[in-house]
Structures are given as structure tokens and as C-alpha cells.
Amino acid sequence: MSVRWGLIGASTIAREWMIDAIRANGGEIAAVMSSDAERARSIARDHDIPAGVDSLDALLGSGVDAVYISTTNDLHHAQTLAAARAGKHVLCEKPLDLTVAGARDMVAACREAGVTMGTNHHLRNAGTHRAMREAIVAGRIGKPLFARVFHAVYLPPHLQGWRIASPGAGAGVVMDITVHDADTLRFVLGDEPVEVAAFTQHGGMGAQGVEDGVMGTVRFASGVLAQFHDAFTTQYAGTGFEVHGTEGSLIGRDCMTQKPVGEVLLRTAAGEEHLPIDRVNLYERSVAAFHAAIRGEGRPAATGEDGVRSLAMAAAVLESAATGRAVGVDPQI
Predict the structure, then answer these.
(1) How far apart, in Å, are the Cα atoms of 18 and each of 15, 25, 190, 253, 306?
(2) Where is the Gfo/Idh/MocA-like oxidoreductase N-terminal domain (predicted)?
(3) Which end of the chain lies in a sparser environment, N or C, as judged by fewer CB atoms within 10 Å?
(4) Backbone angles phi, psi at 23, to 5 degrees
(5) Average pLDDT over residues 93-100
(6) Any idea what the CATH number is for the domain that residue 57 is in?
């Protein structure tokens, strides 16, 4: 059975990635919603979507089975609750909400309504990160001790907007990028963050009060220590993800990206080996898992609970930067 989707938010990510990913998995897109009626109609016309609407009620009443939410972060909560009440499955962009309590409400509402909920954390679907996770599970680097994430990039002008100017909408690099680091670290390490210490930076891109850079350290339940560096302001930095263990190191390069690119080097006493990497589209893998979960076959690639946990670490990062102290990560989901 084909899944009929409604797009809540006429976003760049919907246009550039998710429309094609849904269709590649046999899904139909029945409607797109934007608060700007002309924008909704334009997106619908350009992408061969039957309806462009400017109200949530109209979209939820258009015969859709599932919704993909990619509006600004402050709108996710109310839109998810409305979709759950209407019996629609929900795939929501990260962060789920501006608060951990709000994210928990979203997960609970979907659970009570009996609908599938996922968080669109794309990086755990990358072949690079999956290869690293598999190598760790197989014991190829021994006991993991340290991890490092380099996710400092340059936010292009067409994506800046509210991300650097609207604190009330969830602006800032922590809610936009660090939340991805949190999920990817959890996925690759198979571990949970318990405490963070961080400093934020205002490098000139973000509006007053909006951080555009951050560095910090995370302590995981197993004792692993992880560093992270995220920014909107670095035009020439490469991205990477490393895990160092007692018997070897995994060194990923150019892997913190939406594209199925990057390499992973395994370095041990036996020498160096480039791990085989699949090049599956990250969003197509996400939608495939979500469709399977709707059919009762497994779980979304990242569940609603995963979204709560990544947000909890991001919230702790912001609190640490504001208070100048290490902050525990809320373990409740």
C-alpha cells in the first residue's frame, strides 16, 4: 500500500531532499502546507503535488496517512499534536521542540494515538557512520575511549534567515547542528551522554543573543569522552567523526553532510584499512525505514525517543554555556 504524505512546511530540505526520497520509496505526496498560500501553491505546482494549502486543518483533511514536519522549531510541537489527534503518522525534523518537556509531549501524543513517530536525524543513515558503528560492535578498535566530531561549516545565505536571527523560533548552531552530533554520537557509540561542558561563540553571523559557534566535551555512560566543534561561520573547514579505542582508531572524513559521501579509515597494529562504505541516499534510507515501521516492520531509523535524547544533550550544552558549569543530560524520555 502506498503511503500518502502531507508536507507541513514548504522548506528547503523538503524541496531538495524529502520529496524525492518519499517518491523513491513509492510514497505519494498529496499536499504541501505553508502559512504563505502563494508559496504553498508555487511549491505544489513546481513539484507536481496535487494541493498547496495554507492551513493545517486543510492538510490533515486531505486524505494523507503521514506528515513530514519541517517548519521552524517552535511550531513542531503543536503541529505534531494536531497530526497525532488526526491519526497521522509523524516524521518530524530535529530538534523536536524548543524544550525537552515539549518533545516528550510529542512522543507521548503519538504513542497514545497509536501512530508511528520518527525524528529525521539523517546522519545516522550515512554509510560512513553505519560502517563505524559496525566496526565498534565487532570489536575492531577494542574498547572505545574517545570520540571527536568536527561539524563546523558555513551556513549559506539562502539558509541563514531565522536560523541566525530568531531565538524564539529556535535559532542558533546548537539547535541546528549540535543536536545532530548528539544523535550521531549516540548511534555510532551505542552509548548515552550523561554530562556536558561547553562554550558558545558569537562570531559575527548570528544576531544578538544567537550563538553561531560552539565547542564542548561530553561524558558518556561508559566513560567515553567526546569533543564536538560546530559552527555556521567556517567557510574552509572539513567535517569529520573519529572514535579512538584501546586497539585502534576510526577516522571518518567529509561525513557530516546530507550527501552519501565521505570515507572511513580504520587504523590498528595491523596497518590501515579503508572500510567499505555504501552510498545509499540518507533520506531515502530514512523514509524506507519509516514506511516499514508504519507497516509494523521494525522502527524508524531515528525514533521520537531518539529525538528527545538528542534534544536533551543540546539543551544541556546551552545550559552549560550559559552557566559556565558542567551540566547533566536529562535521562528521562
Answers:
(1) 6, 11, 27, 25, 20
(2) 3-121
(3) N
(4) -70, -35
(5) 98
(6) 3.40.50.720
